[in-house]
Amino acid sequence: MTAIIKLENIFQHIGGRCVLEDISLCIEAGESFALLGPNGAGKTLLLRLIMGLDRPSAGRIEVLGRDLTHASPAEMIRLRRSVGMVMQGGSLLNGLSVIENLILPLRASGLSTDRMQRTARLIMTQLRLDGLENMRPYELSGGLSRKVELARALICRPLLLLWDELLDGLDPASVGEIKEHLQREKKTYNMTLIFSTHQTGGALTIAHRIGVLESGRLLFTGSQEGLEAAERRDLELRFALQGSL
After folding, report:
1. Buried-state track 114-123, b at ≥16 Cβ within 10 A, e below 16
2. Quick one: pLDDT band at residue 221, thresholds 50, 70, 90?
3. Average per-residue pLDDT in the chain?
4. Strands (E), the chain
5. Model pTM?
């Protein structure tokens, strides 16, 4: 197996406060890795560091073989072509239609307009978004917006997908569809998935490994079975998981 992400002794300070403390982690190609923890644990910040949207105060981050710590803006642009991200707060542009939002990542690909639109319509069909092409994001429900964001994140067939609060705000039917689609993408393209969640339920069923964050510290990494065993003997971990319920 090849490590697609390496975090070495990551610290992050904001306003004089340490919000991520000495985090080291390796994630393998094709793996599904869940970041579990209560709100404010540092999950979103860690995903932003992996995406290169923020730089750590100390430590080293390597993504897809590139050292982000000293990467130039041009190197970051090239890297992000291989990385998709679904943001927690939403990032669709209300001034564009759904299909215009979807083809934004394809603009630099050199594809014709017709090819880009056909690619967008195909992924819309796969995620059961047909008929929404000309709608604006503000006209969509929260669940549909999340599915459109996922479609945009996957349209370039990324090697790595980051999802902040996986499945949050989705109805049960959409949860099943998205789980199935993610598993298909992973199997077909060996895509690596890293997602955050504050819930100990359904989202974790697709994770190979789980990392538990609490107050910026990584308390545990391992399987769900290992987590259940560790929770029984580790009081601090138990309190962190109770805060995630």
Report:
1. eebbebbeeb
2. very high
3. 89
4. 3-14, 17-28, 32-36, 58-63, 66-67, 83-86, 160-163, 192-197, 209-214, 217-222
5. 0.89
111-162 pLDDT, tens digit per residue, is 899 999 999 999 999 899 999 999 999 999 888 888 999 999 999 999 999 9
Fold of 3-82+158-243: Rossmann fold (3.40.50)
* Residues 208, 122: Cα–Cα separation, whole Å: 29
Give whole-number Cα distances, 96 to 27, 65, 126, in Å: 35, 34, 21
d(CA 179, CA 202): 10
**Residues forming CATH 3.40.50.300 domain(s) in the chain:** 3-82+158-243
Length of the chain, in residues? 245
Q: Pseudo-torsion of CA 62, 63, 66, 71, nearest 10°?
A: -80
Name the more confident of 77 and 221. 221
Q: Which residue is associated with the tokens 């982690």?
A: 25
